[in-house]
Amino acid sequence: MDLILDLIATASRWCRGHLYDISLAVMVTLLVLLGPGINAWVQSKIGHLNFILRTLIFVAACVIGYGLAVTFLTPWLAKGLGYFNNYTLAPMLLVGFFLIGVLAERNS
Q1: Angle at the Cα of 29 (from 28 to 35), degrees rounded to 5?
Q2: In the prediction, which pLDDT does 62 show?
Q3: Is residue 58 over pLDDT 90?
Q4: Torsion, Cα of 62, 65, 67, 72 (10° steps)
Q5: Pair 78, 23: CB distance under 8 Å
Q6: I want to staple 77 with a disulfide (CB 3.0 to 4.6 A). Which of 19, 23, 38, 105 is the partner?
Q7: Where along the chain do its domains lie?
Q8: How many angstroms from the chain centroid is the CA of residue 108?
Q9: Whole-angstrom distance, CA of residue 91 vs CA of residue 39
């Protein structure tokens, strides 16, 4: 049991040094998976507008919305993950990536 706890603590310490990169990977993956749904919602809201205005709004929503999400939500996620201790960080990351994998499988 001590070997498993030591392995978890070691993995968590390694992950702690890379939390920003891990958070960026999670955010970008979630945006890729949720992007089609978000895009469909935006298109349903602006579908009645002129083509040029609709295109400009859609491009702005994608560029500004996704760009701001990656820029501002990634540090928040990294900070939130930093609150986990060395015995819970690595298991939580594994569970999180597993759930993202399940979401990806359902979207395909």
Answers
A1: 85
A2: 85
A3: no
A4: -170
A5: yes
A6: 23
A7: 2-107
A8: 18
A9: 32
